[in-house]
Design brief:
This protein has 85 residues and is mainly beta. The chain has 1 helix and 5 strands. The two termini are 13 Å apart.
Length: 85
């Protein structure tokens, strides 16, 4: 796993594994994710949840790739999410 701080510096389409908490929903399948080193926006398509229910106090592990668009903060397109062990 890498830190959010490191993930924010990675190049577009880099694969990342992050562990942290989903603090809040921002709408449109986007969420605020915090691992203690920083905050990054993650995008989780509705069909990636697989029935998982995550509360703000739950630590989750996400796998996905960095998505950098011009003039906006890097985000993570989540391909897999699970509760962290």
């Amino acid at each position: 796993a890498v830190s959010v701080q490191d993930a924010l510096k990675m190049s577009d389409d880099s694969h990342v594994v992050l562990k942290g908490k989903i603090e809040k929903s921002l709408g449109n399948e986007k969420y605020q994710f915090n691992d203690g080193t920083g905050i990054i926006i993650i995008e989780i398509d509705d069909d990636e949840w697989n029935g998982l229910v995550v509360k703000p106090e739950n630590t989750v592990e996400i796998r996905g790739e960095i998505d950098k668009e011009l003039m906006s903060q890097p985000q993570v397109d989540v391909e897999m999410i699970m509760l962290a062990q």
